[in-house]
Amino acid sequence: MVSSIDSSPPPPRQPLEAQDVLRLEALAHSLGLPVAEGLAAQHGAIWGWIGPMKVAVGVRFVGGRPVGHAHFVQAPGALLGPASVEPWSAQGQGRQLSADEAFDEELSVRGDPAVVGAWLDDAARKQLRSIFAHDPTPQSLRLSGARATLRGPDTATLEVAAVTEQIKGLLSLVQAAQLQTRSLLDRVVHNALHDSIADVRTLNAALIGELMPGASESARAQAAGQLLLSSDIALDHRLDLLRIVRGLPTDQALPLMTDLLDQGPLELARRAVTWAEEKCEPETVRPLVRLLHRFEEPNLTRGVVSALSAIKDPKAQPALLNLLTREDEALRIAVIEGLGGFGNQDAAAHIMPFTKGLFVDRELKRAAREAVDQIQARDAAQD
User: Fold this and answer.
1) In the chain, where the domains are located
2) Rounded CA separation 203/192 (Å)
3) pTM of the predicted structure, to 2 decimals
4) What pLDDT is recorded for position 156?
C-alpha cells in the first residue's frame, strides 16, 4: 500500500482586521521602523533596521488564521545558542538551572549547560525577567544562529506599549549575546569571577574545565591567568585548571607558574615547583627561592631544592647554602647533592665541614665528600 502525501497548498491567510494592522504599524512606529503603506496588511509583518540589527514585528498565522504575534531581532553575526526561555512550569525536563533562585522560580531555560551558563550573567537574567514580566506574557524566546525570536501569547490582540518594551529588551539582550564580542570561555570566566550571586559564580567555575580543552592555547592561558590566583574559585577547580596549564607551551605556561610560585596557595605552588623541575626553567629560579620564605613546609622545601638542583643555575647557590643551617639531615643531604652538580669553590668550602667529624651522619659525610669531589673535578676540567 502506497501512502498518499497531502500536497495541497496551505490555506490562504485571512486578511488582518484594520485595527490589527493599525496596532502593528503603531508598534513599528514606536520602535522607529519605517512603515510602508500596505506592508502590514499584505505580509502580516513589518521589518527594518535598528542600527546593525534587523528587526521584524509580525503576526503568527496557523491554518491561515492569525493566532498571535512573533518578533525577531537578527544580529550581524552568530549569537550564543541555541537556547530557549519559557515561563517556568512543572515541565522541567531538559531545563538548565541558572543557580539564581529568583530567576529559576520564574523562567525555564533550555540549552547546552555551558551556553546557558555563559549567557545568563547578571544583565541577561535581569533583561529576561523584564521581558517576561510584561502582560501579556510571551510564550517563549529562542536564540538560534544570529536570530533571537520572541513568540507572543496566542491572542490576536497586540499590546503596543508592552511589546515595545519587550523588543527593546530583546535588542539589548541580542547586543550582549553576540559571540563576536566575547567568546563562550570569556563569558564563563567573567561570570565565575564577577557575578553578584555566589551560586552562579560556582556554577560557572565548574563549567570552565569543560570549555578549556576546546579553546586556543592563548585563550586557555588568559583564562587561567584570571582564575588560578582567585580565592573565590574553589581549589579543586583551580587544580583542574592547573592540569590544563601544564599542557601549554612553556612560554605560555611560564608566567602562570611563576605567579603561582610567588602568590599561589600551597597546593598550587607545590605543583608549580614540580613543573619548574620538569622543564628545568631558569626563569623560575628567583620565584623558587622566594617560595622558600613564603612557606616553611618540609616537603615543599625539599621539592624546591630538587627543582633548583635540576635547573643548576648559579643564582640558586646562596639560597641552597643557607639551608645547610637547618637541623634536617635529609634536607642537608639533598642540598649538598644538588650543589655537587653545579656549585663553585665557595659552595665546596661550606660543604667541607660535613665531610668529617665524629657527630656527622654517615650518609651526610658521604654526600659531602662526593659533592666536594665533583666541584673540584669540574673546576680542574675547566682549568
Assistant:
1) 18-177
2) 7
3) 0.82
4) 58
